[in-house]
Amino acid sequence: MNDPILEHLGPLAALAGTWEGTKGDDTAPSDDRGVEQNLFRERIRFEPIKPPNNHEQQLYGLRYATTAWRLEEENPFHEERGYWLWDGAANQVLRCFTIPRGISVLAGGTVEPDATSFELFAELGSPTYGICSNLFLDQEFKTVRFELKVVVHDNDAWSYEEDTQIQIKGKPDLFHHIDKNTLSRVQL
């Protein structure tokens, strides 16, 4: 991809392109509010976007779309759409996304421009990096914190681990909904 925006994306530049992972692991709440394990495959597409006009703040970013399928199944069990953004003046990576279950997240963190690993977070009630859910999820499966760790291994592989911390109604302890995968580039 020969896009001049890539030189302004800091640590996100390595993510541009299309990626596939075939050995994802999802620990999620089951239908009976217990625990279920799902092995999955996924496809993520990151496309550079024209920098948005945000007054003095200069953001560069990638539009992204994720689709995940349980192994051996045809229909996806997870989709999300959003943006990964780089604010080079503040050394901030932002990830804003929506999941069609009725939840939106804006996660962020301080990251060096040449970093090959970084962490982002969002917390319920935060005025900056926060979480917003629909009424049902807020009452039954309240997401109180989101943590993301990203490691870029080389030009053709990266991995992530997400910890979505959920307060399930009637349960005393937080549920750690963990998603993790290693992805390989299939197209630049």
UniProtKB/TrEMBL annotation:
Report TM segments: none
Enumerate the spans annotated as THAP4-like heme-binding domain: 9-185
Output this protein's name: THAP4-like heme-binding domain-containing protein
One short Pfam family name for this protein? THAP4_heme-bd
Q: Which organism is it from?
A: Nitrospina watsonii
Recorded hits in InterPro entries, A to Z, give: Calycin, THAP4-like_heme-bd
